[in-house]
Design brief:
It is built from seven helices and 13 strands. By secondary structure, the chain is an alpha/beta fold. Bound molecules: succinic acid. Succinic acid binds next to loops.
C-alpha cells in the first residue's frame, strides 16, 4: 500500500475526541464536543506537513445525533469523495452512536474512496488522551491507496462500518465486530495490515434520504425482557409507529406477553424485524431474514432505509 499526495478532508462532528474536562485526571466527568476540529488537527505536529482540510460539520455529543445531521453529513461526504483532488475523508465522531453513523453512510454512499470515522474514549484534556493517536491513524488509513468504504479506526483496530459495535463503556478498545470475524485490519505506525476485505456494495444513493426537514420513518427498537409490559407497544401503535425492531432474547425469541401486540402491528402492515439482544452472534437459522445478523441499531437503520425506498 502506498500513500498519495491528494487531500484528506477531516469533518468534525464533536464527541469525546473533542471533549474537555476541568481536570486532566477526570476521564468521565467531561463535556463532549467542545473543541474545534481545527484545534484537534493543530494539536498533532505530525499532521502539519500533510495536505489536509478541516471542516466543522457539527458539534455534538453523539448521543444527540439526529437524522438531519446524517443527511447533511452524507451529502457533504459524497461531494468530497466526488472531488478529484480528495484522496479520502476522515470524520471525528463520538463513540456512542458511531456505529449508526457508519452504517448509514456505508449503505447510502458505499464510497470507493476511504471514509474513516474515528473517535476517542477520553477527552482531549486527559493526561493520556487517545484521540490524537486515533486521528493520526485515521488520516494514515484515509491516505492509504486501495482502502475503500466506510470504516472506523479506534485503538489501532480497523472496523467495517457495517459491523462495528461499541461494547465497552470505558476501555480504549471499546469496539468489536459483534460477530466472530474481528477487525478488518490493524494500523501500526501509520501502516495498515489488512485481514479482510474493505466494505463494498451498491450504494442506495442520496436520493433515498428524505429532503431536509422531512421526517424519516418512525422505527423503534424494543428489547424483550422478563416481565415486559405490552402497553408500550400498544401506545406506539396508536401513535403511528411505522416499523419495529425487536431486540429478542437469545436466538430470536420474545416474551409471550408481546404476542398479541406484535400480531396487531403485523395485521396493520407494520414490519417487525428480529435481532438479538446478545452482544455476539446473529440469529442462527434465519440467514434470509432481514436484520437477523445485525445489531438492533443497525437493523433500525436498515428498516428505515427499506421503508424510504418503498416511499419512492
Ligand atoms: C459521544 O459519543 O459523543 C460521547 C462519548 C464518546 O465519544 O466516547
Amino acid at each position: 500500500m502506498q500513500s498519495t499526495t491528494r487531500k484528506i478532508v477531516i469533518l468534525g462532528t464533536g464527541g469525546t475526541i473533542a471533549g474537555a474536562s476541568s481536570s486532566a485526571t477526570d476521564n468521565v466527568g467531561y463535556k463532549a464536543g467542545q473543541l474545534s476540529v481545527q484545534s484537534l488537527v493543530g494539536a498533532i505536529p505530525a499532521l502539519a506537513s500533510l495536505p489536509l482540510e478541516a471542516e466543522q460539520l457539527a458539534q455534538l455529543d453523539s448521543k444527540d445525533m439526529d437524522h438531519g445531521t446524517w443527511t447533511r453529513l452524507a451529502h457533504r461526504v459524497q461531494a468530497l469523495v466526488d472531488r478529484e483532488d480528495v484522496q479520502g475523508v476522515v470524520i471525528t465522531h463520538g463513540t456512542d452512536t458511531l456505529e449508526e453513523t457508519a452504517y448509514v453512510l456505508q449503505r447510502v454512499l458505499a464510497p470507493t474512496k476511504p471514509v474513516v470515522l474515528t473517535a476517542a474514549m477520553r477527552p482531549a484534556t486527559a493526561v493520556q488522551a487517545d484521540g490524537p493517536q486515533n486521528l493520526l491513524d485515521a488520516v494514515a488509513l484515509a491516505g492509504t491507496s486501495g482502502v475503500q468504504g466506510v470504516v472506523a479506526v479506534v485503538a489501532g483496530q480497523v472496523w467495517s462500518g457495517l459491523e462495528l459495535r461499541k461494547q465497552h463503556t470505558y476501555r480504549l478498545d471499546a469496539f468489536t465486530a459483534g460477530a466472530d470475524a474481528g477487525p478488518l485490519g490493524v494500523i501500526e505506525e501509520g501502516h495498515v495490515r489488512q485481514f479482510r476485505a474493505w466494505p463494498a456494495g451498491t450504494p442506495l444513493g442520496l436520493a433515498v434520504l428524505p429532503a431536509p426537514g422531512k421526517a424519516w420513518p418512525w422505527v423503534a427498537v424494543l428489547a424483550s425482557h422478563a416481565g415486559i409490559e405490552a402497553r408500550a407497544l400498544n401506545a406506539w401503535q396508536a401513535a403511528g409507529l411505522e416499523g419495529l425492531v425487536l431486540a429478542c432474547t437469545g436466538n430470536g425469541t420474545w416474551h409471550q406477553s408481546l404476542e398479541a401486540p406484535l400480531q396487531a402491528l403485523k395485521d396493520q402492515g407494520v414490519p417487525v424485524w428480529r435481532t438479538t439482544r446478545c452482544a455476539q452472534g446473529p440469529i442462527v437459522g434465519a440467514p434470509n431474514e432481514k436484520g437477523a445478523a445485525l445489531s438492533p441499531w443497525a437493523a433500525r437503520i436498515e428498516l428505515m432505509l427499506t421503508l424510504l425506498q418503498a416511499r419512492g
